[in-house]
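Standup notes
- DV: blocked on the single-chain target, sequence here:
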Amino acid sequence: MKHGLCKTVEGAAPAGPDDAPRPHLGGSMNAGQAPPDRHPRLRRLSERSQSIEEYCRSIAEAAPTAPAPASRQLLATVARQLADQVPGLARAGLEQDLRRPHTVVSLAEHHASIAHPLTMSAIATQALYSGLSGSPLISFTCATVPLDNDLFPRGTMIAGRKVAFLPQRHRAKSPLTCPAMNTEDMSGKLRQLERAGLIDAATSAAVAQWWSRIAPEVAACRLYWQQVSLLNQRIFQGVFALEAAPLVMLPIELIARDMLLADLDRGRYGWLDRSLFDPAARTALLRSLDGIRCCWNADASRGTFLFWSVDEANRLRPVFPRGDELTTRDGRAVCRIEPAAIHAALTREALVPAGSYALIRIAVQCRLRHFGGSLQYDYLSHIKRRLVSGLGAFLTEDELRGIDQAPDSYYVDFAEHEALGGDLGRLKNPISKADLASFGAASIGEAARRALDWIATSVTRY
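- DV (later): unblocked, structure below
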């Protein structure tokens, strides 16, 4: 198995602005409405008076369901990926720990530094749940989103200032296709910020001391995405002064790739891959998910059908089915849509699963408990509904029932809390148990109502 997408050519022309989907983080989008009655579980949460902590406890104490074979395969793949790719995060017994009944996975983040105000509330919820349940936390992140989006995955935030890990020339690439960062650059950037009076000496010293400890192991990672995975666990441990299971972060696309390759090796196909390889079902799948956020929009040539093509310059290019082939927008054939050809393209890294394939494979087919924000409440519910209606003629009743019963989410995106500073400046004043308790005392109902209002007024159909 290769170690990820590592064919980056330094100085190559970046992908164009339309070659990858962009995230939308709110604001007016002239969108169609998403009535609250489409999200009954989120509406029920909005009517509850319990606190966020009580809500997290109810998840941890819920009766577990026996893991399906797909879930066991997923957890084994995670353990192997860690051991092969980011040894600094691997540890003995991880696979067994992940099978504990209280384990949840997060599907809510990009593969980017978690030290950012827009993501800290989600990370705080995960830290709260991990501390309450004692279970490990694993985050499957999207690593095919370009590095120039609003969450600034090209770097991190320090005292409200953006500090880049990578030069500007990499901004249109994705975490999977970027070279490793130069860890020696951080010290100079900290000194520049301090000299300019943009951060205080105490913050600069705290970050510099922390960075000097972790820089050698970050530099030892061969690829940027591996560095981010390791870096975020160290940020989690430094920013939260808690006894909580450490964060484990891996790109969801690479986990899905390894699971698909294993299935292709065994000739064992679940309903998603059967639908891919059957022409009639593939057409139904294409039509069913067309226009849904996180999937694709064929008429507008946005997104990509289940996979990204990776060109010679290591740029991600969208593909769509044309007959029995996956083709680029200009009609160039990438590979035939058959098991042997898909296997070969994945192995030589000419294809990588898209976030849509990975999300459906893990959130819907494996059916693990998972965290997800208000956007996921919206698009996962649409994906599930469209899959059930569009693939009804091709799947068994049990498979359709499994899709319908797959969980939508286990949290909403909570509003920023005054006790949770969202950048590396918190290293000098870590988030304490009291800070998290204050956050946990907030109302789940109020947070869910805000999420419903946001979906109804701000979220566009993809």
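- Follow-up: The CA atoms of residues 46 and 449 lie 5 Å apart.
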